[in-house]
Amino acid sequence: MPKVIVTTSWDDGHKLDLKLAELLRKYDLKGTFYVAPENREFKREDLLSDFQLRKLSQEFEIGAHTMTHPRLGKISAAKADKEIRESKEYLEKLLEKPVTSFCYPGGSYTFLNVQQVKKHGFTLARTIDRFSMNLSDTPLELPTSIHTYSHRSDAVKIARFANLDPEKTAIYYKHWEILGMAMFDKIKEEGGVFHVWGHSWEIEECQFWERLEKLFAHISGYGDVEYLTNGELV
Fold first, then answer.
1. What angle do CA 141, 142, 147 make, to 5 degrees?
2. Is the pLDDT of residue 2 over 90?
3. Domain-by-domain residue ranges, the chain?
Protein backbone atom coordinates (compact mmCIF):
# COMPACT_ATOMS: atom_id res chain seq x y z
CA MET A 1 0.00 0.00 0.00
CA PRO A 2 1.48 3.41 -0.96
CA LYS A 3 2.47 5.73 1.87
CA VAL A 4 0.23 8.78 2.14
CA ILE A 5 1.04 11.84 4.26
CA VAL A 6 -1.07 14.93 4.96
CA THR A 7 0.46 18.08 6.41
CA THR A 8 -0.81 21.64 6.74
CA SER A 9 0.87 25.00 7.40
CA TRP A 10 -0.35 28.53 8.07
CA ASP A 11 1.59 31.76 7.80
CA ASP A 12 2.06 35.13 9.48
CA GLY A 13 0.89 34.74 13.10
CA HIS A 14 -2.45 36.54 12.73
CA LYS A 15 -4.92 36.19 15.60
CA LEU A 16 -7.37 34.46 13.24
CA ASP A 17 -5.00 31.49 13.44
CA LEU A 18 -6.98 30.60 16.57
CA LYS A 19 -10.10 30.13 14.43
CA LEU A 20 -8.07 28.02 12.03
CA ALA A 21 -6.76 25.94 14.92
CA GLU A 22 -10.34 25.19 15.97
CA LEU A 23 -11.08 23.85 12.50
CA LEU A 24 -7.92 21.71 12.48
CA ARG A 25 -8.89 20.38 15.89
CA LYS A 26 -12.40 19.55 14.69
CA TYR A 27 -11.02 17.31 11.93
CA ASP A 28 -8.08 15.99 13.96
CA LEU A 29 -5.54 17.47 11.54
CA LYS A 30 -2.04 18.58 12.44
CA GLY A 31 -0.73 22.01 11.58
CA THR A 32 2.40 24.13 11.62
CA PHE A 33 1.89 27.83 12.30
CA TYR A 34 4.69 30.03 10.97
CA VAL A 35 4.85 33.13 13.13
CA ALA A 36 6.51 36.51 12.59
CA PRO A 37 6.22 37.97 16.13
CA GLU A 38 6.54 41.60 14.98
CA ASN A 39 4.93 41.27 11.54
CA ARG A 40 4.87 44.81 10.13
CA GLU A 41 2.08 44.04 7.69
CA PHE A 42 -0.51 44.02 10.51
CA LYS A 43 -1.38 46.09 13.54
CA ARG A 44 0.02 44.64 16.77
CA GLU A 45 -3.49 43.96 18.07
CA ASP A 46 -4.17 41.77 15.02
CA LEU A 47 -1.27 39.44 15.82
CA LEU A 48 -1.23 36.50 18.21
CA SER A 49 -0.21 37.52 21.72
CA ASP A 50 2.58 35.72 23.55
CA PHE A 51 -0.02 34.02 25.73
CA GLN A 52 -1.98 32.84 22.68
CA LEU A 53 1.20 31.57 21.05
CA ARG A 54 2.16 29.53 24.09
CA LYS A 55 -1.31 28.02 24.23
CA LEU A 56 -1.31 27.26 20.50
CA SER A 57 2.07 25.56 20.81
CA GLN A 58 0.61 23.01 23.21
CA GLU A 59 -1.30 21.36 20.33
CA PHE A 60 0.42 22.51 17.15
CA GLU A 61 3.91 23.12 15.84
CA ILE A 62 5.12 26.72 15.85
CA GLY A 63 7.64 27.62 13.18
CA ALA A 64 9.62 30.81 12.61
CA HIS A 65 8.74 33.27 9.85
CA THR A 66 11.34 35.99 10.60
CA MET A 67 10.68 38.74 13.13
CA THR A 68 9.07 41.45 10.97
CA HIS A 69 8.15 39.53 7.75
CA PRO A 70 10.52 41.08 5.18
CA ARG A 71 11.18 39.48 1.79
CA LEU A 72 14.55 37.92 2.54
CA GLY A 73 15.67 37.90 -1.08
CA LYS A 74 15.29 41.69 -1.24
CA ILE A 75 17.20 42.74 1.88
CA SER A 76 20.88 42.59 2.77
CA ALA A 77 22.46 39.36 3.90
CA ALA A 78 23.15 40.87 7.32
CA LYS A 79 19.53 41.96 7.84
CA ALA A 80 18.26 38.59 6.64
CA ASP A 81 20.55 36.77 9.04
CA LYS A 82 19.34 38.94 11.92
CA GLU A 83 15.68 38.33 11.05
CA ILE A 84 16.17 34.57 10.87
CA ARG A 85 18.26 34.29 14.02
CA GLU A 86 16.15 36.58 16.20
CA SER A 87 12.87 34.91 15.23
CA LYS A 88 14.22 31.54 16.37
CA GLU A 89 15.61 32.95 19.59
CA TYR A 90 12.41 34.82 20.40
CA LEU A 91 10.11 31.85 19.84
CA GLU A 92 12.32 29.34 21.63
CA LYS A 93 12.58 31.58 24.68
CA LEU A 94 8.82 32.18 24.68
CA LEU A 95 7.75 28.58 24.08
CA GLU A 96 10.58 26.93 26.01
CA LYS A 97 11.06 24.33 23.29
CA PRO A 98 13.11 23.96 20.08
CA VAL A 99 11.81 25.69 16.95
CA THR A 100 13.19 23.80 13.97
CA SER A 101 10.86 24.77 11.08
CA PHE A 102 11.07 28.00 9.10
CA CYS A 103 9.07 29.61 6.30
CA TYR A 104 10.40 32.20 3.81
CA PRO A 105 8.07 35.25 3.84
CA GLY A 106 6.41 35.67 0.48
CA GLY A 107 8.48 32.77 -0.82
CA SER A 108 11.38 35.18 -1.40
CA TYR A 109 14.84 33.81 -0.65
CA THR A 110 18.32 33.28 -2.05
CA PHE A 111 20.81 30.44 -1.86
CA LEU A 112 22.57 32.40 0.90
CA ASN A 113 19.32 32.61 2.88
CA VAL A 114 19.00 28.82 2.73
CA GLN A 115 22.50 28.54 4.18
CA GLN A 116 21.62 31.05 6.92
CA VAL A 117 18.52 29.06 7.85
CA LYS A 118 20.65 25.92 8.09
CA LYS A 119 23.35 27.71 10.11
CA HIS A 120 20.84 28.78 12.74
CA GLY A 121 19.65 25.24 13.36
CA PHE A 122 16.50 24.89 11.29
CA THR A 123 16.00 21.45 9.77
CA LEU A 124 13.09 22.38 7.50
CA ALA A 125 12.16 25.53 5.58
CA ARG A 126 8.95 25.87 3.59
CA THR A 127 8.57 27.73 0.32
CA ILE A 128 5.38 28.77 -1.51
CA ASP A 129 6.04 26.50 -4.51
CA ARG A 130 2.88 24.55 -5.31
CA PHE A 131 1.76 21.36 -7.07
CA SER A 132 4.23 19.05 -5.34
CA MET A 133 2.81 15.66 -4.40
CA ASN A 134 5.96 13.84 -3.31
CA LEU A 135 8.16 13.80 -0.23
CA SER A 136 10.81 16.42 -0.94
CA ASP A 137 14.53 15.63 -0.88
CA THR A 138 15.23 19.34 -0.25
CA PRO A 139 13.83 19.97 3.26
CA LEU A 140 15.26 23.50 3.39
CA GLU A 141 13.29 24.37 0.25
CA LEU A 142 10.13 22.41 0.98
CA PRO A 143 7.42 22.74 -1.69
CA THR A 144 3.68 22.50 -1.09
CA SER A 145 0.70 20.99 -2.89
CA ILE A 146 -1.92 23.72 -2.78
CA HIS A 147 -2.56 27.21 -1.42
CA THR A 148 -6.05 28.06 -0.16
CA TYR A 149 -6.34 30.69 -2.86
CA SER A 150 -6.60 30.72 -6.66
CA HIS A 151 -3.60 32.01 -8.62
CA ARG A 152 -3.66 33.03 -12.27
CA SER A 153 -0.09 31.81 -12.55
CA ASP A 154 -1.26 28.26 -11.77
CA ALA A 155 -3.47 28.01 -14.86
CA VAL A 156 -1.04 25.94 -16.93
CA LYS A 157 -0.26 23.54 -14.07
CA ILE A 158 -3.97 23.16 -13.32
CA ALA A 159 -4.65 22.32 -16.98
CA ARG A 160 -1.91 19.70 -16.93
CA PHE A 161 -3.24 18.19 -13.73
CA ALA A 162 -6.70 18.02 -15.35
CA ASN A 163 -5.16 16.24 -18.37
CA LEU A 164 -6.19 19.23 -20.50
CA ASP A 165 -9.87 18.53 -19.84
CA PRO A 166 -11.43 22.00 -20.30
CA GLU A 167 -14.36 21.40 -17.94
CA LYS A 168 -12.19 20.08 -15.12
CA THR A 169 -9.62 22.81 -15.69
CA ALA A 170 -12.28 25.50 -15.30
CA ILE A 171 -13.65 23.94 -12.11
CA TYR A 172 -10.21 23.44 -10.56
CA TYR A 173 -9.16 26.98 -11.48
CA LYS A 174 -12.23 28.52 -9.89
CA HIS A 175 -12.47 26.23 -6.85
CA TRP A 176 -9.14 25.56 -5.12
CA GLU A 177 -10.87 23.27 -2.61
CA ILE A 178 -12.10 20.96 -5.40
CA LEU A 179 -8.61 21.01 -6.92
CA GLY A 180 -7.25 20.11 -3.48
CA MET A 181 -9.65 17.20 -3.10
CA ALA A 182 -8.68 15.88 -6.53
CA MET A 183 -4.98 16.16 -5.70
CA PHE A 184 -5.51 14.34 -2.41
CA ASP A 185 -7.43 11.57 -4.18
CA LYS A 186 -4.54 11.12 -6.61
CA ILE A 187 -2.03 10.96 -3.75
CA LYS A 188 -4.29 8.58 -1.83
CA GLU A 189 -4.20 6.22 -4.80
CA GLU A 190 -0.54 6.58 -5.79
CA GLY A 191 1.17 7.61 -2.55
CA GLY A 192 2.86 10.89 -1.69
CA VAL A 193 2.48 14.03 0.39
CA PHE A 194 -0.50 16.37 0.36
CA HIS A 195 0.53 19.74 1.78
CA VAL A 196 -2.09 22.47 2.07
CA TRP A 197 -1.12 25.94 3.27
CA GLY A 198 -2.61 29.39 3.57
CA HIS A 199 -3.28 32.46 5.69
CA SER A 200 -6.12 32.69 8.21
CA TRP A 201 -6.56 36.42 7.52
CA GLU A 202 -6.85 35.72 3.78
CA ILE A 203 -9.43 32.99 4.35
CA GLU A 204 -11.45 35.44 6.44
CA GLU A 205 -11.04 38.26 3.93
CA CYS A 206 -12.18 36.06 1.02
CA GLN A 207 -14.86 34.26 3.06
CA PHE A 208 -13.27 30.88 2.34
CA TRP A 209 -13.99 29.15 5.66
CA GLU A 210 -16.72 26.95 4.20
CA ARG A 211 -14.45 25.94 1.34
CA LEU A 212 -11.63 25.12 3.74
CA GLU A 213 -13.88 23.01 5.94
CA LYS A 214 -15.06 21.11 2.86
CA LEU A 215 -11.43 20.30 2.03
CA PHE A 216 -10.62 19.33 5.63
CA ALA A 217 -13.61 17.00 5.79
CA HIS A 218 -12.42 15.30 2.59
CA ILE A 219 -8.82 14.69 3.66
CA SER A 220 -9.35 13.73 7.31
CA GLY A 221 -10.17 10.54 9.16
CA TYR A 222 -8.29 7.96 7.11
CA GLY A 223 -6.63 5.20 9.11
CA ASP A 224 -4.08 4.54 6.38
CA VAL A 225 -3.00 8.20 6.11
CA GLU A 226 -0.20 9.64 8.23
CA TYR A 227 -1.04 13.12 9.53
CA LEU A 228 2.10 15.11 10.35
CA THR A 229 3.31 18.61 11.17
CA ASN A 230 5.80 20.12 8.72
CA GLY A 231 8.63 19.45 11.16
CA GLU A 232 7.72 15.78 11.39
CA LEU A 233 8.34 15.37 7.66
CA VAL A 234 12.06 15.28 8.42
1. 125
2. no
3. 4-233
Handedness of CA 199, 200, 206, 207 (dihedral sign): positive
What's the distance, CA 23 to chain centroid?
15
Mean predicted lDDT score pLDDT of the chain? 97
The tens digit of pLDDT for each residue in 207-223 reads: 999 999 999 999 999 99
Cβ count near 231 (within 10 Å): 22
Cα distance between residue 28 and residue 41, in whole Å: 30
CB atoms within 10 A of CB 137: 6
Residue 28 Cα to chain centre, angstroms: 17
**R_g of the chain computed on alpha carbons:** 17
Q: Which residues pair with 225 in a beta bridge?
A: 4
What is the sign of the dihedral through the CA atoms of 120, 116, 148 and 172? negative
- Domain 4-233 class in CATH: alpha beta
pLDDT digits (tens, 9 = 90+) for 42-69: 999 999 999 999 999 999 999 999 999 9
Say if residues 33 and 14 touch (Cβ distance below 8 Å): no
Residue 52's CB is within 10 A of a number of other CB atoms, namely 15
Q: Output the CA–CA distances (angstroms, integers) from residue 218 to 28, 57, 65, 211, in the order listed.
A: 12, 25, 29, 11
* Planar angle of CA 37, 41, 45, nearest 5 degrees: 60
Helix H or strand E segment including 228: strand 225-228
